[in-house]
Design goal:
The chain is built from seven helices and two strands; from the N terminus they run αββαααααα. By secondary structure, it is mostly helical. It folds into two domains: 106 residues, Topoisomerase I, Chain A, domain 4 (Orthogonal Bundle), CATH 1.10.132; 41 residues. A two-stranded antiparallel sheet has the order 1-2. A hairpin with a 5-residue loop joins strand 1 and strand 2. The model has no long low-confidence stretch (mean pLDDT 81).
Length: 174
């Protein structure tokens, strides 16, 4: 039976080994080159995306633990957390490189970037400052020749009444 990797995780030397394995696993080239042959037997060199390294697969295949256990280790041990952050940076590099080269389906790449890297479509904006009713009323008044809102409303009512009366007069004339 193989020795389980999580045995002795409390020892520093072993944590270092986990960090090294993690970085080695994620330090892969984004793509490899291959030869394709068309229907006329013409050969051309083409890029083929390598498998995207995933934390869950690494944890299961290399450490024989679940991804949740590995994250708990990263929370507990700073050197594992640092290696984990570097691995995420390497993963981002692979995703971006292969996406820009058109080696991934664009929808799949967007989905992966949002879910694996935390990318978002929306823009977060914060508005700060204060707005008081008095300053707002002053600004409205300034832009309307010094009239307050009540005066503006009354003027609008009066103007509508005049317009209605003029329309009635025109109707009576016709």
């Amino acid at each position: 039976m193989p020795k389980l990797i999580y045995t002795g995780i409390g020892r520093y030397e072993y944590r270092r080994e986990v960090c090294d394995k993690l970085l080695e696993y994620f330090s892969t080239n984004p793509y490899r080159t291959g030869i394709t042959v068309d229907k006329y037997s013409n050969e051309s060199e083409t890029r083929i995306a390598n498998d995207l390294p995933l934390l869950g697969k690494f944890a299961v295949d290399e450490l024989h633990v679940c991804q949740e256990t590995f994250r708990a280790w990263a929370d507990k041990y700073p050197e594992i957390a640092q290696a984990y952050n570097k691995a995420k940076d390497l993963q981002e590099y692979i995703l971006i490189t292969n996406s820009l080269l058109g080696l991934y389906n664009s929808r799949t790449a967007i989905f992966a970037m949002k879910n694996l890297l935390g990318w978002r479509d929306k823009i977060d904006s914060n508005v700060s400052g204060e707005l008081s009713v008095t300053s707002l009323m002053g600004k409205i008044s300034e832009s309307n020749n010094g009239k307050d809102l009540i005066s503006q409303r009354n003027d609008a009512i009066d103007n509508n009444a005049i317009d209605d009366a003029e329309e009635a007069d025109e109707d009576n004339i016709n």
